[in-house]
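> forwarded from #structure-qc
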């Protein structure tokens, strides 16, 4: 069973890997069968590809967890998105993600983004 602290640390580590562009170091944070509902894909490879695409388009992009809530095997995260060059600095995108954890690793994710579009 994953503790609250372990669940929070897992999400923070994932964001650190994104923010530092150390995508390969995030491999061990995800289960082999990780499922991304927004992407409709299984496996972390598709997530890494999406991360690479986003950071190529927005080289200064960073995600910052504002709230992390843990309930059993679920972790809900509200993150602000910085460095996307939106015209209105006050209207930064916000991500809402819910992860399911299995055996200490991220197994599934549902998420939405609010605010200026990143695509």
């Amino acid at each position: 069973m994953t503790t609250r602290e372990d669940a929070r640390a897992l999400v923070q580590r994932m964001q650190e890997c994104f923010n530092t562009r150390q995508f390969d170091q995030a491999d061990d944070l995800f289960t082999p069968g990780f499922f991304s509902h927004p992407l409709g894909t299984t496996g972390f490879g598709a997530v890494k590809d999406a991360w690479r695409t986003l950071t190529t388009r927005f080289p200064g992009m960073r995600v910052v967890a504002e709230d992390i809530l843990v309930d059993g095997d679920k972790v809900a995260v509200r993150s602000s998105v910085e460095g996307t060059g939106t015209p209105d600095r006050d209207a930064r995108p916000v991500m809402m993600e819910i992860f399911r954890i299995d055996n200490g690793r991220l197994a599934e994710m549902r998420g939405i983004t609010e605010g200026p579009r990143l695509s």
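QC bot note: The chain has two helices and six strands. The helical segments are 4-19, 44-57.
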